Every structure is written in C-alpha cells, then in structure tokens.
Amino acid sequence: MAANNYNNIDLDPLWHDTDWAIGQSLIMGWDGTEVTPQIRSLIEDHHLGSIILTAKNLKSAQQTARLVQELQTIAKNAGHPYPLLIALDQENGGVNSLFDEDHVCQFPSAMGVAATGQPDLAYEVTKATATEISACGVNLMLGPVLDVLNNARYQPLGVRATGDDPQEVSQYCLAALKGIRDAGIASCGKHFPSYGNLDFLGSNLNVPIITQTLEELSISALVPFRNAIASGKLDAMFVGGCGISNQSMNVGHACLSDQVVDDLLRDELGFKGVAISECLEMEALSHELGVQNGAVMAMEAGCDLVLLCRSYEIQLEGLKGLKLGVDNGIITQDRLLTSVRRVLQLKSTCTSWPQALQPPGISLLSQLHPSHLALSRRAYDESIAVIRDNEKLLPLTSSMHPSEELLLLTPLVKPLPASSLTKSLLESTSNGKSSVLTNHDSWVHRDRDRGSIMSGEGVFREFGKGLARARNGKLLHTSYTANGVRQVHENLINRASCIIIVTADANRNLYQAGFTKHVNMMCSMLRSRGQKKQVIVIAVSSPYDFAMDKTIGTYLCTFDFTETALHALVRALVGEITPTGSLPGTLRKSKKVLKARQHWLVEEFDRERDGEGLETLLNAVHRASAPDLQFLQSSSADTFELHNPNVKETHYSVRNSSTGAVYGFVATYYTSGVGIIGALFVDPAKRNVSIGRSLLRRALKNLKQRKGLKKIQVGMCFPGVFLGAPVDAGASPTKEWLGNSGFDIQFPRRLTNMVISDLPNWSAPEGLPQSIQRANISFDLIHGLDNADGVLSHVRTNANPEVLELYRAALSDSKACGIVRAKEPSGNLLGTIIICRQHSTLETYIPALMSHSGDIAGILAPIIPPGPLSTLALQGLALMGVRQNKSHKASKTVFSWAVDDMYEPLLAMGFEILQVFEEITNSPDTVSCVR
C-alpha cells in the first residue's frame, strides 16, 4: 500500500471549488484504445478524478500500461493534487477486461474457484490477478462479486458469483479481498444490495426488481456484504441500478435511494468506504429521470462516485446536473466534500504519483508469468467437475477406440471477453465498437450494444482440434441453434460412436436444453437397436444446466469456456488429469440429502383458489420440459377435471399460502377397482426438496382408502396428459424416482404417442390395402352410444376401466368422434379405435390434440386382442382413421396410446414417435411411499 498521508484534506482550498469537487465525485470511461480529446477534456477542464477502463480500451498489457501512464500524466500536468483512480473489471472466467495471452493469465470464474473447494486458492488467484492489473497501472479492482445466487438457475449473473450459500460466498470473497489488498490495490464489492435473485420484466425500459423483503435479504443476500464490511478490507461498494419492491421498500433504482445507500449500506451495515453508483447511462434511468436528475439523486442518496460509462454528451449532462444540484441547494457543500474526503482517502491507500506515473508494466509481468501460468493451470484442472459418469465413459481413451468417430455439438454463443477470438474481433472492427458486453453493459446497455457476432465454431474450434489430437482419433464438429436437430446432426450422430454436447447457460437458452434432450433420446433409441452411441454433456458456463437431470448419465462442468478452461477440459476428457471439482453451495450432495427430509403441507385442490396457480405451474413445467413434452403447453386446469359420474377424482396441491403460488400438483382417479395417478407436476425451481414425495404420499393415502381397490396405476389415457412415467432420452427419471418411492417398476407397459406431421402429403405404404383386403378384414364407422353396445362390451373385456370411459366420452360426441370397427368375415370384432376430428371435446383432456390453428385430428386407444390378424387389424384401423382425418382437411394426425410393440407397425406406415411413456401397475399392498 502507498504510505501517503492525506491529512487536512478539508482545509485545502482547492476542494472548496465546486468544479474540482464535482470532478472528484465522478467516474467515467470512453470507447477507444487511445486518449481522445473528450476524455482529455474531462480530466483537464472538468477535473475528472476517476476512470473506468473496459475491454474496448485495452489491447494488451503493454498498451494498457502506456494508456494509464498517459492518463495519469495528463492529470498531473492539469494540476490534479492526487492521481486518478483507475478502475477495471477483472473477475476472471468470462469477465476480463484486460486480455493478453503473453503477459496476463486467465483464471477460473468465482464459481469455478469455489468448485475446487479451496478458499486458499481464491486468495492466490485474486492476488495474482490484482498484481497483474496493478503492474499496468490499475489501482481499483471492481470486485469481488459478493452476490448470493438465491435463484441460481435463472439468473444472468451465473458463474460470476461464488454460489447460492451465503456462508460459502462469504468465505471465498473474504479470501479474495485479502488477495486484492495484499496486491496493493483497492477493492470494490458488487452488486449491492444483490443481483442474485432478480425478476426481469422483459422491457428495456424496466429495471430488474428485487422482491425479497429486507428480512429475507438480511439472512441470505446481505450476509457476504455484511461480512466483507466487517472484515475492514473492503474499500468501495458498487451499488446496483436494480429496483426493490416489497412491503417495506419501493425503490426504482437502488443507487438513487437513500434508503439503500445511506440507511441500509452505511447506517445498518456500517460501511464507511466509497459508494459507486451503477452507470447512469442505463436506458431505464435516462428515460424515466434523465441523467441530470439521476446524478443529483445518486449523490443525494449517498453515492460518492457517480458512474457514466462512455457517452461524452451524457457525461457532460451529468456534470451539468451536479452543478445545478449545487446551485439549487439540493447538494450542499458539506455533502460534496464528504464524498471528496472518502475518495481521496481511498486514493491514499492504493496509489501515489510515483506509482501512477511509473507502473512497472511488462518487466514485472514477465517475471510473474511463469508462476502465474502454473497457478492458472492448477486452478483450472482442479475446477473441472464430473457431476455424473454413470456409464463410465471417462476417460474417452478407455471407452472409445481411436478408430471410432467422436462428434462434438456446440451452441452458437457470443465469444467471451477473455479470449483471443474476441480480441481479434475488437482489433478488426474499424470503429472501435463490438458486440462484446462488459459486465456493466450486460443489461445497462443491452439494447444499444446488442451485436450480431455469433461464433460458436470460432469459440469451440480449437477445443475440437485439441481433443482430436489428445485422443489421436477422428473428431466431427458442428454447431446447433434454436432450429433444433437438423438432418446434418442426424447424419453425424449416425456416424459417431460418442457424442459430446456442449451447453452454455441452457436454463436461460432453453433451445440448448431441448436440443440436448432430443439428441440424448435419439442416441438411446439407437443404442436399443444395438448401436454404440455414448452421450456426454458438458456445461461450459452454469453448472445448473443438467445438475439435477439424471437422464444425462455423463455430465461435466467447466464454469467458463475460455481457451484455458477448454484446454483443462481436454486433459480431463482424455485422462491426463482426474477431475476433482464439485457443484457449488447447496447443490453439494450433503445439502441435497438435508433437503430431501423436508415435508410439505398437501391440500385438496380447490379450483377457485388454485386454478390460476396451476396454470402458472403448467407453463413453468412446459418451459423446462424436453421437446417431446411440449404438448404440456396445451394443458390447463380443465384438462384434469373429468366430471365423470363413473370416475371418482380427487386432486391435491402444494402451495404457498401467502402468495397463492402452486408448487406442485397431483391428480388421482378411481374407477372400477383401479386407483390411478394421472399426473404429478412440481415447479422446476422447487424440485429436489421433497414436494413430489409429499404429493405422492398423499395421493397413495387417498387411493388406498377406496373400497374395492385392486391395483394402483401410474399413467392414464383419459385424461391423456401422461400415459405413464415419461421416458426422456431413453431413460425414465420419473420411473426411477417412483422406484425410490416404493413402487415396483420392473414390468412397466410401454405406451407411445405418434404423429403424421404432413397429413396432406401422406400416402399408404405400397401393398398395405391389398394385404388387408386379402385377409378379409372389413371395417365400419359408428357414432353415438345407441349403436355402441358391442364396442363397449369389447373394450370392457379387453381394456382397463378408464379406457372404457374414454370410449364413452368419444361416443357421446357423435358430431366430432366415431369408432372404427375391424371385423372378421364371421362378424366377430378384431379391434376398435377412436377417431376424432379437429376441435372435438376430447382435445380438452388429451393435450396432444390441442392446436390453436385447429389442424390436428386424432386416432386414439386401439383395443386389439392378440391374434394372428392383430397387426393387420391395427394397421387397417389406423389406415381408416388417417383417411377419415384427411377427408376432414386435417394437416396433422396424432395416434395416441400405442401399447407395447404396437408402435413398430405404425412406424412402417409413416407415423413418427411423439412421446414414450411407461405405465406402472402395482398391487395396493406392495406400494408404500417411503418417508
């Protein structure tokens, strides 16, 4: 630390000059890698005392040191008594403003470091990073990130935060603070009061909102901030621009509120350092208040440095605003000098003119580089986390022969600032603009700077080459987008023995989750046919992508996708290192076990009270589901309520009694001795905390109380939301969960939904009509209950009672539904099937039939006893149904409830698989939901 003692600051007459005092209360930046006339004028004419540098200013370590030296020389020559504060975001991982692969080392993100389980490593890494930027003349590091990810799966902050456990975040951040201080520069915690659980409202003119109460914030989000302040090592605090909306506080922008800055940060938490505002160029603020008002409000709220990132016109507007604030008596001289005093005190701890004018630069960096490179490699190697490897696919050198082809599927993503690709893009952009957003820009400037540079191949190409070299085998590589699985993907999947799918924040880029699950299912089907199709999923940013999805049998996390991280990933994949990283915070196994013991109150579903909450829950489940379950979008509260006199139904919910939110729902039915669980949903954000177990326990208790109960069944065709446990990507996590919950899952019945997507252009397979004719099978179509005695008797004999109710419902809708019968020459029934036109009453209960464009017709519930003609009878019934649907001008037809191997003859007819379920049936005596 510099030893300067700036006593008598308030006595220096210079600071009683309003222009000098205002200049010392602002922090500004600009675009470009050289000093511009504008930034020079701000320092010389407006006495600007603090500068923020971003990736747009920096080309290399040497250029950075020269640039900072020039800025400080300008300040010195302009009569500044004290050096400029030079601030920089250098968080590591994906957020590094200074990139120079020859002199500045790349280290893992905050969450990546936490994945190593070593707080000491956080100290070493942060000290190394702070030492490097200090060598270039930077004296204020904008970090560490003190936010707690209260809702980790859906927050853009992601791996920039340590995790979701306040105590663990505190532990790592205190180590980081010590590292910054020991490197001799100042620290700035962010983003107060929290960016870890924001509600985004969608509009550029709306800021994200904190909805937690102060009490809730106090026991979670504020814990690391409080601990950092109490340590005495935190020099500055970055106050966010988010809103706060709860019963005790309604704030539009935290950094403009004295309730947040003066009351909460200073009075309650005891912070005495420099408070820095969020950038006031943010659209929401400038549209709502204007920058002049915003600057005054920030100062009045208690901020000491008002941030204006880059626009010279807006910066002049902010300066003018503060001067008007003083002239109008809103900002007093005492208030202004209080901020000046804090800023100068900060400068006294982290800089001096000798340091500022002679940064050590490349000479020091060259000395440090070998040891820092070794530290970087160790940190990355120890951060790589293998969450699951159920099939023992790792290392690839053991599970694959070099002659086998490996396929790499990567998403199109924006390159990270900390990459050579980004640097080349910046250098090749003539006007100095780029699409790479700094962390301040991420939502502050997200509309103005949104660019079109998308380079998935560019980011991951070197990774693919390195992996091919390391395993000495052939590697195929292509990208995927929101367009889903295309023919090129299918062709490459058919060639490869092992498929690596890379995801980057799939919880916020849902197409990645859908694509991954689709490919996983394809590979599972190919494996069932004897082909070798290993699947490895790698999350290269947030580990939450598939952390809880056990259908992904081999799952790794890297916590960022810089070149350095991907080099470590190659080493892990080929067995050069044994990954030892783990998931952050509460996702660690010990915490999951703790959560699994929770019990939730289960209440009987009340349509008036819970209907809206159920609709919201269905939407949440739909958004988080694989593509083959997208029909959930068509489900509603009406879907589950049959109002059928022959079916007793009772449904249950787990809800938040304070907000009305429904966290989970289960539908139960009882008819003719069969108790059925027809659906069970849990909010994706509330999974793995025993809500599903609580609902299942209550559902079983209800069903076991029914007199005459002979069996308990999971899955139902009417309503046909879930025909059974969904089989996702060749596995059924729901079935596994049911097994762990007391069900015997050894002998499920496969039920398949199928589809012809282009019905107008479909034609019957050659020879099929002739084969049916030669077998002397005849067909007819009946409508209405009056003609249905024989059909209902046939269904009653050969199917479960709920199927009988589906037939009755179809026969009751004689205008839109009918029954096709297949008969032998003797007149005996070979089989029956339901056909329904578009917009039949059945679509309410069978979501796969629902279509807003009214183009889907249905073929449902074939009842065909085993026999020599059963396959031809099935194909004949399907053919009659398809012809009827074509005659009604449907563009698509769904075939629901193909039992066991029934789907195979339908595949031969041109149907495609839509969803696969497994119906599970147990005796009531054998089912016991474990507690």
TrEMBL record:
Residues forming coiled coils: none
UniProt entry tagged with the keyword Hydrolase: yes
SUPFAM superfamilies linked to this entry: (Trans)glycosidases, Acyl-CoA N-acyltransferases (Nat)
Family annotation (Pfam families): Glyco_hydro_3 (PF00933)
Single biological process term from Gene Ontology: peptidoglycan turnover
Family: Belongs to the glycosyl hydrolase 3 family.
Boundaries of every Glycoside hydrolase family 3 N-terminal domain copy: 35-346
Signal peptide span: none
Keywords: Glycoprotein, Glycosidase, Hydrolase
InterPro entries attached to this UniProt entry: Acyl_CoA_acyltransferase, GH, Glyco_hydro_3_C_sf, Glyco_hydro_3_N, Glyco_hydro_3_N_sf, NagZ_Beta-hexosaminidase
Any one GO MF annotation of this record: hydrolase activity, hydrolyzing O-glycosyl compounds
Name of the featured protein: Beta-hexosaminidase-like protein
Keyword Glycoprotein: yes
